[in-house]
Write a structure and sequence with these properties.
The complex is a heterodimer of chains A (124) and B (217).
Chain A lengths: L1 H19 L4 E10 L6 H12 L8 E7 L1 E5 L5 E4 L14 E5 L3 E9 L11
Parallel strand pairs in A: 1-2
Antiparallel strand pairs in A: 1-6, 3-4, 3-5
Helix pairs in contact in A: 1-2
Chain B lengths: L1 E8 L2 H17 L2 E7 L5 H12 L5 E7 L4 H7 L4 E6 L8 H8 L9 E5 L6 H4 L6 E7 L6 H4 L1 H6 L2 E5 L11 H11 L5 E3 L8 H13 L2
Helix pairs in contact in B: 1-4, 2-9
The chains are: A alpha+beta (124), B alpha/beta (217).
The complex binds guanosine-5'-diphosphate, magnesium ion and zinc ion.
């Protein structure tokens, strides 16, 4: 259900960008989401479509990039990527690890256009 | 077509509000703990056990977030504790801006600890910063011993875990070693308190930790 919370926030952000670029359409948006967030991309896209309906974000194609969980082990110095959020060093088994990535929730970029290819990408 | 780099936290509007909450609390010297757990885990019961034990040791106020009713706030008020109710309607979590508004109704200069009982939900509240000093995961035996791996965001971020309803362990297939093993795969050294709000078992150890949190800052 937290996909909907995130979808709503995303719509708000895209609407704001649309306001900053009058006359332009937001075609697509790229988001990067860490593995710890346990987001199901299809549910996020579905929630986004629903939340975007009737707003300036309607019709935006949402591209969801997965950011793997990475940890650094303080015991053996190994750096590892985790498929599951099991914060134990795969190399030595210890739990004395620092998370390097995995909690990302980032709107990376959007593609805008006004149908004439002359849309200004400058921020006002 | 033009690509615009954004690189913003998706929840940034909420984060900005959370930062305001945090700075107001810090200025007033208040430690704020965000209690997160499923409906029925015993968040309000834990407050009912905890607050009387803090009497004369810490001055506390509570924010009660609930979808509709003011019942939990009534339970806290009955203990003589200052409480502000936030109704979130259909919202499954408290957003930071509602906490910011609630702060206006609290005597921040007179309190040391603010406890926020979040809406019963293990997922969304863990995603949203509300300006708290720390999140407390409240989970009960009745929910089963496999929850940490299912809700890693909460168990990874929280600064303590309260396992409530340990009085029920003999009546269930809950295995404490399995729960703790599962928790340790997510968070190797978060403090874990097994308590029963029915019998009072384990509550004193939890309360002592809580007092340590406010004096350590
Ligand atoms: N057996 C048992 N029941 C408890 C315990 N703590 C709370 N309960 C019961 O669990 C139910 C939900 O408690 P409540 O505090 O309202 O949960 P909340 O929704 O998380 O605030 C109530 O019926 C409580 O009496 C406990 O330690 N043991
Ligand atoms: Mg409650
Ligand atoms: Zn290692």
């Amino acid at each position: 259900m937290h996909e909907y919370t995130i979808a709503e926030a995303l719509v708000g952000q895209i609407e704001r960008i649309a306001r900053e670029h009058p006359g332009c359409m937001v075609r697509s948006a790229v988001v990067a989401i860490g593995g710890l967030r346990r987001i199901v991309p299809d549910i996020l896209r579905f929630g986004f479509e629903g939340a975007a309906a009737g707003t300036a974000a309607a019709g935006t194609d949402l591209v969801v990039e997965h950011v793997p969980i990475r940890i650094h082990c303080h015991r053996c110095n190994a750096e590892s990527e985790l498929d599951e959020p099991i914060y134990l060093c795969p190399a030595c088994g210890h739990g004395d690890v620092a998370a390097l990535s995995g909690d990302e929730l980032i709107l990376k970029s959007v593609d805008i256009d006004n149908g004439r290819n002359s849309c200004s990408a400058e921020h006002p | 077509m033009a690509e615009i780099p954004v690189l913003q936290n998706i929840l940034e509007a909420n984060e900005a509000m959370a930062a305001q909450v945090r700075s107001r609390l810090e200025r007033a010297g208040v430690v704020a703990l965000n209690f997160i757990g499923a409906p029925g885990a015993g968040k309000t019961s834990l407050l009912e056990q905890t607050l009387p034990r803090l009497h004369g040791r810490l001055s506390v106020a509570v924010i009660e977030a609930d979808c509709a009713t003011a019942r939990d706030a009534g339970r806290i008020k009955a203990l003589g504790i200052e409480v502000v109710q936030i109704n979130t309607g259909t919202g499954c979590h408290v957003p930071a801006h509602l906490v910011l508004q609630a702060l206006d109704r609290l005597p921040l200069e007179r309190i040391q600890l603010l406890i926020i009982e979040n809406v019963g939900n293990l997922v969304c509240p863990a995603e949203l910063d509300i300006g708290e000093s720390g999140k407390i995961a409240v989970i009960s035996v009745a929910e089963g011993d496999d929850k940490p791996q299912k809700y890693p965001m909460l168990f990874r971020q929280c600064c303590a875990v309260v396992l409530n309803k340990v009085d029920l362990i003999p009546h269930t297939d809950f295995r404490r070693e399995r729960f703790e093993g599962d928790l340790r795969t997510i968070n190797a050294d978060v403090p874990l308190f097994g308590v029963s709000c029915r019998t009072g078992e384990g509550v004193d150890a939890w309360v002592n930790w809580l007092i340590g949190q406010t004096t350590a800052r």
